[in-house]
Every structure is written in C-alpha cells, then in structure tokens.
Amino acid sequence: MSYYPVTVVEVGTTSVKVLVGQPDEENIVNILGWGESFTAGMRKGEVTDQKIVKQALDKALEAASRSSDTDIKSVVLVCSCGEPQCQKLTGTVNVATRHGKIDPDTIADAEESAESTRLDSSRMSLCSARRHFSVDGRSGISNPLEFTASSLTVEKLRMHIDKNCFETLKDTVEQAGVDVVSQTFSGICAVTACTDLEQRKNGVLVIDLGGGVTKWCAYYGGSPCSMGALAVGGDHITADLCTAFKISRENAEKIKKRNSSAIVDAGKCNPRTVTVNETLSQCSIDMLSANTVVNARIDETLRIVYEKLSDDGYADFMNSGVVLCGGGACQNDICIVARKIFKTPCTIAEIPSIHSELDHRNDIVAFASAYGALVKAAQREIENEKRETDAGFFSKLIRRRTHDEV
Questions:
Q1: What is the pLDDT of residues 246-277, one digit of tens each?
Q2: Which residues, at least 6 apart from 31, have a Cβ–Cβ distance to it below 8 Å?
Q3: N or C: more exposed end of the chain, with fewer CB within 10 A?
Q4: CA-CA distance, 37 to 56, in Å (whole number)?
Q5: Reported pTM
C-alpha cells in the first residue's frame, strides 16, 4: 500500500524546522527531506514580525521541498504559542448497548462528553490526550472495549492556547503558500520521538528545552499524566549573560554554547577566562561567574517543572527517569542539574536516524518535536487509509449480499 508524503512545520522562537516523511509498507516513517531556517521574528513562541517569519518559512519549505522532491501543499503545524495551559477533562455516559457491553460508539460518546467542556472565548484547544477510563467507578482501565458495565468515564488532558496568537501564527504559515490541516502541541510530540512504550508505562518525563519556551509532558501507565509549558528558554540564558557582563548577544550566545556549564564548579571552567571582542574593546569573562548565571536560570526553570509535576501528583512516579531534548538539551552538564532536582536518572534524548545530512549534528535533539509530530501524523495517515480500505471492503460485501438475495 502506498501512502502520501506528510509534512510537519515547527515554528519555534529561534528557527523554523520542516520535515517531510512517508510511511512504508511496514509502517516505518522514512524521512524524505528537511529544511531549517533561523528567524528573529518570534518571541516566546509567538510571532512578533510576520514578514521575517514568512521569509524563514519560505526558505525552510523550499529546502524541504527540494530535498524531498515533493510539492508541499499542506502541513501539520507544531507549536507552543499562546501561553499553553493544561486542563483536565472528564466525560461520563451510560452504557446503552443491547447487551450492556461497551462498544466503540460508547467510547466515542464518553470522549465527546469530555471534550464538550467549554473554554473561554479567547482560548482554543491545541490538542487533547486520553489518560484512562473508569468503568462503574473502577479507575485505571486502559481499554474498556467489550466490558459489561452501566457507565463509562474517560479522563483526558487538553492543552489550550490563546486563539488570536495561534491564528496569527497559522496565517503566517499559510502566507508561505501551504494549508495548515491540523495542529499539535510540541511537548507531547517530543515524547513520541524520545521514548518507547515501556518507558511510558513505567513513568517518564520528557522536557523540550526550546529557545523561548520550555515544554514538558509526563507519561505514567502508558498515558499522559502531566504536561505544560513555560515561557522561558535558552534565549533567556543568553539575555542573562548579556546583562551580567555587558556583552553583545552574539558573544553571549557563543559563550553559552561553546564554553559554559550548567553547574557551578571551578573544575568545569576550561579555560577559566574567555576573551571576547566587543565594539570598542576586548572583554574578559570569568567562566565561574558565567556558569553561575547559566546555572541560576536552568535550575529555576527545571524546579518550576518539578513543582508542576508534584502538583499533579506524579513527581515520584517517573521510574524511567527524565529525558531532555530541544536545543537547550545541548547545554553542558545540564543532566547533572536535572538529576539533582528530579531525584531520578536523566539522559539526553536519542533520536532515531532522521536524515543523513542531520544525523551528524550535535543539536539533532532540537528536531525531536518535529520528528515526533511526523511519526504521529504518519500513523494517522495509516489509520485513515485502513478505515477507507475497510469501508470499501464492507461496502462491496453488502452490495454482493444484496445482489445474491435478489
């Protein structure tokens, strides 16, 4: 069976990333092409200059189209704009089937009941994910299909965002000549890219450290249990270094990436001082002081995530540890800080081979959300194709039986 190529676009604070992929006959997603362009037209995941962002989109889409030999017409948009907030949803329905057994329609009705919870008119749903079911009050059921029951309850998590912020972003993407067919939260996509089913069952937290927004999503028992976003990222570390040492943004970014450590340890300062050229003079940066600045921001950010996870009641259930991805995961020694805060093992994500031109890059983890979104989109493509095939088969079967009866 042949599937159509799928394209995802992630518009982040510092860059636009595009991936084009196609499922094969074994349902494995093959990356056909990619594109990336850096942009200054975003702040904290939101558009500040449509013209600049569109220029970056044009470049990234053109590169992805050329490398994949694909005419890109529609995309899945991966984003974390508009102050993402997580909301718990609950929907309950009575089981009204003939034999009192839960069927697919009963499950669909329960989910529809949960999703009917209204949002403020200024907000919109970005995505939702099922947590678990309860049958006649018995909770923790992952698949209630064919259960004999009187009632069915489903619990879900919904990420919602500012509607106007999203519409501005969507409009900017569509100005680049593509249709946005769906959208999703980058945090939950990163889980797909960075973890396996066993980790999600045991309990795992994935933190996507972006330039302007830090996103996270925790799984336990195979389902999402906590997710959210914080409008703080790597750009803030750069800004902190600029302020502390009165240096240019360019030099602060170089020090952050090349020389700094997330921990305050004189043994990590090699060299102890770094000299940078400013407009009128040279400036010597004491790296122990620089690491103190970097550590303060990273420690604060990760502690906020830990507190949110604790508030949701799952801080002690991350048995498979913490996985870091996004460009911020490239910060030296960041896992040491995370292990101290979360009191569990921490690793940098290992992303499957994406593309020969990308696999050698040190910052390949920055593509985690885009890759995860591509896998999820491809899975939906496979499911839709299967439903259409099954529908066609049953339609032919019904026509054949009708013809035989006549």
A1: 999 999 999 999 999 999 998 888 788 998 98
A2: 19, 20, 21, 354, 355, 374
A3: C
A4: 5
A5: 0.90
